[in-house]
Each structure stands twice: as structure tokens, then as C-alpha cells.
């Protein structure tokens, strides 16, 4: 009989050993298999099966002739072949021996059958236990694999959630980095404008080249813009460092997630394997290979540390974005307020210069009018002097003619007295007129000099107005707005 379906049946498929050519004597064979069970429970590698055993025992023994090299049997076990009966007839055993042998064979057969039945029952129970144990063990392994797959799926979902959050945070921080770079680049224009305004105002002339409030505000604006640029650059460096930290945390998450996906794929494949699955093979000694590098506690702690590191980086990044937003708003407001102060100072200075120019123009017009009038008066005085000189000539001519009167005619009469008085009066009048003429000419020179001063001052004011109003304010109209400074466009 054969045990079909037994897992160890492959052990009986080994080639049957060839039968021995020399068999011992019958008594020796009987002694060899007496009280011997043909199944050894400690070894499954014996090529024993009941049918093969009986087939081997059913072979007819053949005795080979004794040779000199055959040592023979021990003296105590040699069977005598000398017959004690006459006529050459001899008997090897007695009848009692024959009966005893039969009884012994019967009992041995019953014992062997009983042992075989008990062995079959034990084998059936063992096979059932083996199947149950294998099923239980395989079920526990499958259950553990399923739990492992669930654990991996949980950590995968956590990693995916954290990775998505990190990607969003990194993108937001990258946008903030771009805004910082644009804001830093936008401050270059106002910085150059303030410098050019200072250089242009150095071209003012004369008394207008003063250290006024506009110049002070321009210097303050340059300092403010430089301070804002330094703070923006420091913040940009911090943002760049934080982006590197975010990228490192993201790479760790992606690497861990890739490992989790590969492990999930392998464990899912192992979880779905069955006894009827394809692709299962023997891998001898694989159970003695321990390639593990972690335990469940360190495995979970590793992923938890990666997630914690990413969360810390995200929190730091969020705080940095908030501080950067505040810095952008603060620097933009600070530069805009200083820009407004400079513009107000320019407006006030332009208004003041324009008022001064208007007053100069008014005074210049009055001065020109006064010069015209003085010139007219000078002409009138000169004409009056010419007229008085003619009158003086007439009076002196009369007196000179009257000096030619003869003798007693030289009378100091009323006409003589009046002529003398007239000449004296005319001389006094001419002296007064010449003094007035000189005073008028001096005044005219003073008015002309004042006119030149006013005209030069008017040129200076026009130059200052052109510099402040056209050049400086013309450039400052192109100053970027707050939206541009904040980097939204």
C-alpha cells in the first residue's frame, strides 16, 4: 500500500536500491527482521515502503560458492549439514519448531498489522495536524502580511499628504522668492533716481545752490532705500536657505514614499500568494538569511521623523513667508512715505522758487519802469540845463554889453541889479540842476545794476525751476508704485 496525498511522498520517489546478490541464511534473515518496525519516525529519508519491502523479501536467494576470501559465518551460527539419519534423509527442524515458527509468524504478522494500523492512524492524524498547522501558520503569516500592508498604506497616505503640503509650501515660498527678487530689482530704479536728483541739483547756480530740505530728504531717501535693499537681500538669502531645507525634506519624503511603494508592492504580492499561485519555488536556506535593517519601531520612527522634519520645515517656511510679506509691506510703505516726503519737499521748493521768480519778475519790471522814468527825467534835466544855460548867456551878454556904456551911463540902476541877481539865480539853478543830474545818473546806474542782479537771479531761478520741476520731478513721476515694489506684478 502507498500513502497518496502525503506531503513527504516525494521522499519515496528515490530510485530503489538493487537487491543484494548474496543473502544470508534463513535463520540469519529471521533474526535480522525479527522485532523490527520497518518505519523509523525520526527519519523521512528512508526509501522504505511496504510493497517494496515485500517485493524485496519475495526474491529467491541465491548462494554464491565459498571462496578463500569469504570469511564465513561465526562458529556458533554455522548450521551442520551432516545428516544423523540413515539413507541420507535428515530434518532441519522438529515439528514443534515448525508449529512454534508458524505461531511466531502469526503473532509477528498480527503485531506488524496492528503496528501498521496504529501507524496509519498516527500518520492520518499527523497529516491532518500537519495540514492544520500549515494552514494556521500560513494564515497567521497572511494576516501579518495584511497588517503590514495596511501599516504601509497608512504611512503612504501620511507621506502623500505631507508631500503635497510640502510641495504647496515650497511653491508658495518660491513665489515669495520671486517677489523678493522683483522687489529688490525694483528698488534699483528709485535708488538711481535719487542719486540723479542729487547730481542734477548740483548744477544749480549762485545763491540757489543751498542745502535745502529737498537735499536733506533726498539723502534720507537714499539711506532708506539702501537700508531696505539690505533687509530685502538678507531676507532673500534666508528664503534661499529655507528653500534648500524644504527641498531636502521633500527629497527625504519622496525617497521614503518610493521605498514604501516598492515595499507595498512586494508585500501585496506576498499577501496574494497562495499554494496554487504560479511562480513559487524552493529557495533553500533563505530562512537563514537575515537582510533586515530595522524593526517595526525604528521603521515607524524613521517615517515619523521624516514627516516631523517636513512639518517643522513647513512651519518655518510659513513663518518666513509671513515675515517676508510683512517686510515687503514695511519696506514698500517706508520707501513710499520717504518718496512722498521728497516729492512734498520738491513741490514746496518749486513753489517757493516760483514765488521768488514771480517777485523777481515784478521787481524787474518795476526797476525797468523806474529806469525808463529816470532816463526821461535825466533828459528833462539836461534840456532844462541847456535852457538855463541859454538864459544865462542872455543875462551875461546883457551885463557884458552894459559894461560898454560910456562915463556916467555906467549907472547901477535897477536893470543892472536885476541882471546881476538873474545871473546869480541862474548859476544857482544850474548848480542844483547839475547836482540833480548827477544824482539821477547815479540812481540810473544803481537801477541798471539792480536790473542786472534781478535778471541774473531770474536766470538762476529759472535754472533751479528747470532742474527741480522738469528734470527731477520728471524722473520721479516714473517711480514704481507700491504694487510694483511689493512684487505683485
From TrEMBL:
A single BP term in Gene Ontology: cilium assembly
Keyword Protein biosynthesis included in the entry's annotation: no
GO CC annotation, single: nucleus
Location of the protein in the cell: Cytoplasm, Cytoskeleton, Cilium axoneme; Cytoplasm, Cytoskeleton, Flagellum axoneme; Cytoplasmic vesicle, Secretory vesicle, Acrosome outer membrane
Membrane topology per record: Peripheral membrane protein
Coiled-coil features, chain-numbered ranges: none
Key words of the record: Cell projection, Cilium, Cytoplasm, Cytoplasmic vesicle, Cytoskeleton, Flagellum, Membrane, Ubl conjugation
Source organism, top-level taxon: Eukaryota
Oligomeric form and interacting partners: Microtubule inner protein component of sperm flagellar doublet microtubules. Interacts with TEKT1, TEKT2, TEKT4 and TEKT5. Interacts with CCDC38.
Family stated for the protein in its record: Belongs to the tektin family.
Function (record text): Microtubule inner protein (MIP) part of the dynein-decorated doublet microtubules (DMTs) in cilia and flagellar axoneme. Forms filamentous polymers in the walls of ciliary and flagellar microtubules. Required for normal sperm mobility.
Name used for this protein in its record: Tektin
